Amino acid sequence: MISIKNISKHYGSFQVLTDCSTEVEKGEVIVICGPSGSGKSTLIKCVNGLEPFQQGDIVVNGISVGDPRTNLSKLRAHVGMVFQNFELFPHMSVIDNLCIAQTKVLGRGRQEAVERGQKLLERVGLLNQADKFPGQLSGGQQQRVAIARALAMDPICMLFDEPTSALDPEMVNEVLDVMVGLAHEGMTMMVVTHEMGFARKVATRVIFMDEGRIVEDAPKEDFFSKPRSERAQQFLSKILQH
Amino acid sequence: MVMTLKITAVAVAVGIVWGTLLALMRMSGFKLLAWLAASYVNLFRSIPLVMVLLWFFLIVPTLLINLFDIPRSSDTRLVSAMVAFSLFEASYYSEIIRAGIRSVAKGQMGAASALGMSYAQAMRLVILPQAFRNMVPLLLTQGIILFQDTSLVYVSSLADFFGAAYRVGSRDGRLVELLLFAGAVYFIMSFLASLLVKHIQKRKTA
């Protein structure tokens, strides 16, 4: 479904990504981890074209992201993305956050959009907050709204860019629970995260990145039991210690 | 006073709309558009307002008369004043608006794009509404300055509030009193308006 082929990217002379390749099948849950600055967020933003890249190509559902003729907006409308800092629209109520792209991008009627929005808010347990503004919600609630907003577009896959790293510890689980639910339903997901518990629970594969390269790309069991690269072993021992 | 308020209102409205367009042009990826907008802004910001006004009193009437075949005797001074102020203020507004757009976090653009919105949709639905909300105090302050600057139309002997006060004063031989009175009126109106701005600012941060 998502095929990343030899992607390289640089800002000026600084190389951010070097020759990254991987394949994601429908229904897979890929966890991408690695030390900060290793390029994992950049890689995931390349998948929906939010970050341009200079070499290689990414094909999502048969559509090339790198091709200048591709209508990126159209592609992005069907690729959900959740950001580290939620990025809800602060000047709109929660329900309007969920409806705006449905009506303006997908062309749904207001009624249909509201119904779909309410259904998704119920699913993330926030239907009673529909008329509040994002600023009135906790971080965990905001992130759940952000997930619902992405789901409202009926995405073919979901990208998560460190969805829990801006959250207070006690709110991490409420967000992870929603994501686990999604994974069990068969949603194709690419998740940049350090939550190894989440990876153990639902990931099909784990990708480990360092200095802009994919160092390890292995099924979950292999990654945790016998990581091949020394760098991944060090990383795992550091974050699994406590 | 009606004349003064009329010019202020038109210049604020047109200035903000044209200023927004200028700001968007300047921030767009098209080099030529960005360059044109930047030149426009820098030009108007480097010329004294009085001079711009005078030019427009001299140029716009002839232009209008030639273009639209208006009778030579008609009074175009008000229109030229409005055009001059609008174009002049737009350059100031565009700088305020550009700062306002910058103040909206970059991630908002990313989020809007990720939902499939085009650049224009993201600007119109997500970025600009937030930018304007942040800018209200600055835009109002600029409006107050403009309100005072409208007194400069006296160069065209157009009867705005200041011009009228001046004329009445010299007719009755009470110029000093009338000018003091006019000053007091400008002061009271501007001061009240700036109190309003402060109030809005306080409510926003609260």
Notable features of this structure?
heterodimer; A: 242 residues; alpha/beta; six-stranded mixed β-sheet; four-stranded antiparallel β-sheet; 10 strands; B: 206 residues; mainly alpha; MetI-like fold; 8 helices; 83% helix
Summarize the model shown.
The complex is a heterodimer of chains A (242) and B (206). Chain A is of the alpha/beta class.
Helix content of chain B: over 70%
On the 0-100 scale, what is the average pLDDT of chain B?
A: 85
Largest sheet of chain A: 6 strands, mixed
Our measurement of the CA-to-CA distance between the termini of chain A, rounded to an integer number of angstroms, reads 36 Å
* Largest sheet report of chain B: none
Query: What is the count of structural domains of chain B?
Result: 1
Net shape of chain A: globular
Please describe the topology of this protein.
The complex is a heterodimer of chains A (242) and B (206).
Chain A (H helix, E strand, L loop, with lengths): L1 E10 L2 E11 L4 E5 L6 H8 L7 E6 L2 E2 L7 H5 L2 E4 L11 H11 L5 H14 L15 H13 L5 E5 L7 H16 L4 E4 L3 H7 L2 E6 L2 E7 H6 L4 H11 L2
Parallel strand pairs in A: 3-8, 3-9, 6-7, 7-8
Antiparallel strand pairs in A: 1-2, 1-4, 4-5, 9-10
Chain B lengths: L1 H26 L3 H15 L3 H20 L8 H27 L2 H9 L4 H31 L11 H12 L2 H31 L1
Helix pairs in contact in B: 1-2, 1-4, 1-6, 2-4, 3-4, 4-6, 5-6, 6-8, 7-8
Explain this structure to me?
The complex is a heterodimer of chains A (242) and B (206). With 242 residues, chain A is of the alpha/beta class. Chain A contains nine helices and ten strands. In chain A, 38% of the residues lie in helices and 25% in strands. Chain B is mainly alpha-helical and 206 residues long. Chain B has a single domain, classed as MetI-like (MetI-like fold), CATH 1.10.3720.10. In chain B, helix 1 runs antiparallel to helix 6 and helix 7 packs antiparallel against helix 8. Classes of the chains: A alpha/beta (242), B mainly alpha (206). At the A-B interface, helix 2, strand 6 and helix 3 of A face helix 5 and helix 6 of B.
